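Posting this for the archive.
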Amino acid sequence: MNQMLRKIPPVHELLNHPSIQSYMDNHQLISDVVKEHIQSVLESIRQEIQLQKISFQNRDELTNYIVNQSVLSIQQFQSPNIRPVINATGTVLHTNLGRARLPESAVKKVLEVAENYSTLEYDHEKGTRGSRHDLVEDYIKELTGAESAIVVNNNAASVYMVLSAFAKSKETIVSRGELVEIGGSFRVSSIMEESGAILKEIGTTNKTHPYDYEQAINDQTAMLMKVHTSNFHMLGFTKQVSREELVTLGKEHQLMVYEDLGSGMLYDLTSWGIGSEPTIQDVISSGIDLVSFSGDKLLGGPQVGVIAGKKKYIDQLKKHQLARVLRVDKLSYAALEETFKTYFYNRVTVDNPTIRDIVKTKEEILQQVNEVLHTINSNESSLVLKGEELLSQVGGGTLPEVQLESYGISIMHHKHSAEKIHKVLRQMNPPMITRIEHEKVILDFRTISPHDSKVVLQHLEELTKTLSM
């Protein structure tokens, strides 16, 4: 072991190795960066030698191994951490995979704005300073019926800002059945605590009545808050107070009524028989003072939080110090504007990938599946591929009770497990993310775009070769 350790070349010798030098020249790397990777690899190799996990016949073999591992370490460091994937899970708004995909027009607009100076805060008609708050406000007002609106960097920020601005050091009344956790252990109650608002819980987990609010209102009450339970569904012996009832109660006691809608649906999916989620328009028309919702869920746009409602309250939010802390950058505004246009010009089921994939029919999906199966079956393959009827989900903490009928392809291999197939597909370029059901790898084509079918075919061919080795 000690003899092997003494054969490890010094760092300066490895830096001058032809393979290392060639890689540095081709990728224009400075020696300090490469040196750090070599040192890290050497430390790992020393440990493996001491634990007798690896051994080498001679110094040249050891040196070549170190060089190869060093180049591999640098390559892994250079590869992007955020990269495109093929989403074959069937979950349309997959939080781990970035939730909503942007409309093509939004992607082009983001690139255009990123490459050029822009009118982010400049009124080109008047030649004076403008406000970023005005960039998409007219779209929101027109589409929702709200008097005014402001955009912040996500919906948790929306909740934080509203509570901080209007309920700091005062009580906000919320039903216990609506104290949701929105994901990643972020809870509405925790956000309220951080904002300085005092949480006043009423009712029980499954039942809250109007009189619960009435009895809780006092001189310290600043707001009646409703949190739409968009990420779970409660059945059975339940009772909730409607937003219309809260609006009436708020007017009687001159209290603000605010609803955190969460997922934020502009397009009525119930017309397709999908779910029972209220639209933003429904909430605004109820007379509520403020409503907030996400941009990257059912809206199908970038990660933002939108606060819409009565102008007198939105004006206060625009002047609040948090408006600068939580403001949105030019790229998000560019993407959001183009996303709103897909609704404004009535092209949402065609141009908005989120809505398009949610309302995609079984027949459309089946046609895509059959085309792939026909192409694969015409070639020799050791894979066992079969068309399957499946159930997809919307995801992203939205429409938890909804299952979407779908089609896909199951993959099996006579020698290798589903977990092995799942892993191999995940390690391809681009990675293909699948799910496993009943010891079979499932490709759900609801979330595989037609233009991705060619990549799926290539991956299946590559999978056949890899598993036959």
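The two ends are 33 Å apart (CA to CA). The chain has three domains: 2-78, 86-94+358-468, 104-351.
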